[in-house]
Amino acid sequence: MALLDRILGHFKASAQAKLDAADILAPQIEQAARLLVHCFTQGGKVLACGNGGSAADAQHFASAMVNRFEQERPGLAAIALTTDTSTLTAISNDSTYDQVFARQVKTLGQPGDILLAISTSGNSPNVLHAVAAAHSRNMHVIALTGRSGGRMAEQMQEDDVFLCVPAESTARIQEVHLLAIHCLCDGVDSVLLGAEE
Asked: In this structure, is residue 197 part of a structural domain?
């Protein structure tokens, strides 16, 4: 297959994955956005975690909250648990990498805070431990995953929001995750800034 055709195929597959996910995920994204707004207006914060591309998504979300998305507004409290190399390496060295996010959640998380847990497979051990730690701290969880949702699906509680992309390809799942994150950012801003009709 010619390279140009491969590239066009990626564009079409990405667009189709987003269309396939739209009706399934839109109500849960709305629920997650309202949960975030409630958290922020009550003085809470969001802790975000993931590995690899999901770590980048966690950081992207946190930066859009602390700084801004598309509109000017006061900063909102969000921390990506993927960025402090001293903390990450200390926990990994003294314990195991499986605890690298859970330890931070247990230390920084408070009741009413939210964990944004991102795992394309839903089976990342360190993210699963972070979800358990969040529940132990009476935090809500917004989970971004794909495929069948993996073991993370089994961890969800009644007040959590489970966003599972109906796709198998890691690339397509991550592309929909980024769109979902942008929808969350826009949703938070639209509610807080009074743009919601």
From this structure: no
The amino acid occupying position 27 is P
Residues 6+ positions from 187 with CB-CB distance below 8 Å: 29, 30, 32, 33, 34, 36, 37
Cα separation, 148 vs 151, whole angstroms: 9
Radius of gyration of the chain measured on its C-alpha atoms: 17
Nearest to 140 by CA among 47, 65, 27: 47
State the chain's mean pLDDT as an integer.
96
The residue type at 139: M
Decide if 122 contacts 148 (C-beta within 8 A).
yes
**pLDDT at residue 165, rounded to an integer:** 98
**Positive/negative CA dihedral, 47, 161, 148, 10:** negative
| pLDDT band at residue 1 using 50, 70 and 90 as cut-offs | confident
Task: For residue 66, give the CATH number of its domain.
Answer: 3.40.50.10490
The total number of structural domains that make up the chain: 1
CA angle 34, 55, 184 (to 5 degrees): 20
